[in-house]
Each structure stands twice: as structure tokens, then as C-alpha cells.
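User: Could you go from structure to sequence for me? I need the amino acid at each position, not a summary. C-alpha cells:
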């Protein structure tokens, strides 16, 4: 049994871990929201680890406002780098393992070849750069760490693309969605399962890609969402340059999943099946 601390417990991944914890009753889970544990405060982390005798930290705390980060660079780095440094230092002192959630945004190129964990990083926004800085920090300060790079995360919890499209689709007759950004949606529940499975394996520490299998565009993803729930809203495809944003988005974000599938001895399900499950859960919550 391990005592597992989840930081950022109010986020999508944190809430998803909470929802599946009964499947891993050989572990004890401690959920800490930002109010309960501020990762930017080293002493707060150290005291929390001492009091709860933690064995593992799953760091779900992050600054994720991609566009806003362009104007709030200091705040983004405070959480995504300094906070991770604090976790790394505090956990190393107490020989605690860390699983750190990161992002596909650290890659950013358009070669049309799925990224491997060894692919060159090329962050093109403040958010992406701050997340890469956090990765480097955790690898530097605590080598007993896993980094999970993930993409297009959604769930039945909080604010995300799927829930936004459901809301807009019900309210509008037409909607314009970018069609030239290619990636793989990730159901937060599946990501949550992988984080706990990593703790239960003898996998090599380091960087792992995780997303649901398959590829799509935001445009096709939206059409799939509407088709599953029967929303009659016309989806109009547009190019990225027709929908300008403060921060650049990766045009191609497909990641090679072989490493984590081999480590966990699993076959990651396709994004369509994961989406169906999420939408059924969203319907139950309405």
C-alpha cells in the first residue's frame, strides 16, 4: 500500500483520480486543493508530506490558461516551474516518488510523425515554455519521477472543450471550429488510471506520452460530440489563421504511445470510445 498525495485535486485529473480510487483500494489517497496545499510555498509542501507520511505525489496542480499566460508569464512560471521545484526538493528529501502531468505543447512542430518522448522539444508559448521548465525541474531535483505528457484533456468535470461544445451546440444553430490542428483527445479518467498504474509497475522513471489512441481535428472532434448526443448544430470548418489567439497552438500533436503501453502492458483505447463514456457520464450529471 502507498499513501498517495494528489495536488490540484479540484482539476479534471484530480477529480478523475478521486472517481476511480475505489479501483485501487490497496492505496490510500490524500486529495489537496490549491487552498489546502499551495505548491508555490515550499514549507507548506514539506509540512504536508511530514504530517501525512506520503509515499507518492501526483502533481495535477498547474497554470493552464494558455492565452492568459502570455500576459501573466510570472504567474505561469511560479506555478508551473517554481511550484514543481518545490515538489521536487521536498519529495527528494523524504524519498517520495513523483508523477508530474505535463503537455504535448512542449513539442510543437508539423513534421507529420508522432512524437516520441525523445523528440526535440520546441515550446512556442509562455504556457508551453513554463511546462517544459517544470519538466526539467522535476527531473533535476527528483530522479524518482514520472512525467506524463498528455493532450486535449477533457472530462465530465470543470471547464473543457467537450463541455463548451455541448453548451454552444445547444445554444446556436452554427458554430465555427478549427479544422487544421491535429491531435488526440485524452479522457481524464483514462489518464488518471495510467497515473496509478505507473505506481503499481516497475517501470523506468522518466518521460511518457499518454493520450487516447487515434487522431482527429478539433472540427471532427466537435462533429463526433454532436453526433453522439444528437445535437443539430452545423459545424463550419475554419483555419487556425481565421481564429487568432494570443498563444500559438501546435498544428500537429500526435504522440507515439508505445513506451507507456509497453510499460503498463495495456492497449490504450481509442478516443471515440472514451468520448462515448464521458458523454454518458455528462448526461447522468445533468
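Assistant: Here is the amino acid at each position, in order:
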Amino acid at each position: 500500500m502507498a499513501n498517495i498525495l494528489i495536488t490540484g485535486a479540484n482539476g479534471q485529473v484530480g477529480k478523475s483520480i478521486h472517481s476511480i480510487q475505489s479501483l485501487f483500494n490497496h492505496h490510500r489517497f490524500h486529495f489537496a486543493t490549491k487552498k489546502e496545499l499551495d505548491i508555490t510555498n515550499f514549507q507548506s509542501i514539506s509540512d504536508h508530506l511530514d504530517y501525512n507520511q506520503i509515499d507518492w505525489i501526483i502533481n495535477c496542480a498547474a497554470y493552464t490558461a494558455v492565452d492568459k499566460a502570455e500576459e501573466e508569464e510570472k504567474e505561469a512560471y511560479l506555478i508551473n516551474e517554481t511550484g514543481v521545484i518545490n515538489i521536487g526538493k521536498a519529495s527528494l528529501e523524504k524519498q517520495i516518488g513523483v508523477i508530474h502531468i505535463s503537455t504535448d505543447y512542449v513539442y510543437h512542430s508539423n513534421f507529420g510523425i508522432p512524437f516520441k518522448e525523445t523528440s526535440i522539444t520546441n515550446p512556442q508559448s509562455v504556457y508551453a515554455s513554463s511546462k517544459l521548465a517544470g519538466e526539467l525541474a522535476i527531473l533535476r531535483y527528483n530522479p524518482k519521477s514520472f512525467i506524463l505528457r498528455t493532450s486535449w484533456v477533457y472530462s465530465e468535470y470543470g471547464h473543457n472543450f467537450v463541455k463548451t461544445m455541448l453548451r454552444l451546440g445547444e445554444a446556436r444553430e452554427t458554430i465555427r471550429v478549427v479544422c487544421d490542428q491535429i491531435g488526440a483527445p485524452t479522457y481524464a479518467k483514462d489518464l488518471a488510471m495510467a497515473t496509478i498504474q505507473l505506481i503499481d509497475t516497475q517501470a523506468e522513471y522518466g518521460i511518457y506520452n499518454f493520450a487516447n489512441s487515434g487522431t482527429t481535428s478539433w472540427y471532427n472532434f466537435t462533429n463526433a460530440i454532436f453526433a453522439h448526443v444528437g445535437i443539430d448544430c452545423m459545424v463550419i470548418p475554419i483555419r487556425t489563421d481565421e481564429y487568432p489567439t494570443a498563444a500559438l497552438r501546435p498544428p500537429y500533436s500526435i504522440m507515439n504511445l508505445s513506451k507507456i503501453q509497453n510499460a503498463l502492458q495495456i492497449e490504450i483505447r481509442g478516443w471515440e470510445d472514451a468520448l462515448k463514456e464521458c458523454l454518458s457520464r455528462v448526461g447522468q450529471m445533468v
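One structural detail worth keeping in mind: The two ends are 36 Å apart (CA to CA).
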